Amino acid sequence: MAIQTFIANHKPDIEQIISVITKPMSGEICHQVTFSYGDELRLDFGEMSAYTHPKLAHLRKGSWQFGTRATPWVFKQGDRILTSSLPVDIDAEIDEVEIDAVKKVLQQLENKELINFVINARNISLTLLFEGDYKLILEPDLQDDSGLAYWELFMPPEQILTVGPGLFWECKRL
After folding, report:
1. Which of 2, 50, 91, 128 is least enclosed, having the fewest CB within 10 Å?
2. How many distinct structural domains can be found in the chain?
3. Please, which residues have CB within 8 angstroms of residue 37's CB and are 6 or more apart in sequence?
4. What is the mean pLDDT of each run of 10 residues along the chain (174 residues)?
5. Which residues form the domain of 124?
């Protein structure tokens, strides 16, 4: 209700809206860095719990789940690039050794506090700022015609924020 009231009274741009929606996530700890569907990066924040589906009960998920979808990203500490997303080639098999190497570097985010979640309205780039001067920067291709969202954020209580493709975004209950 507070978000709808803010939007109605201020007609904010996407930067303000995303800031309001993600503000409760600031201060959460990144507990888990994984890849799903090949090279789609996923970060789990907040309280960790088991999945409800019996076949997934041995796995854990955060109360906040951030996923990159098919969006290029760069992982930095300060100005130094530590690693970046794997090249997207639908016909090529994903090299598990390469994924494991990238995951090992990204695991530096585990047990780090999320300081801020910043979106740039002009190009829909997103920067997640973490303690220790770590940055995860997503750089969506606005010309991408795959129809996939650039990134998603599953939030409590059962909400999802989806950004992309293009300048499209929505926040809704699941």
Report:
1. 91
2. 1
3. none
4. 43 79 94 84 93 85 90 94 73 66 91 95 92 96 86 93 88 90
5. 2-52+65-173
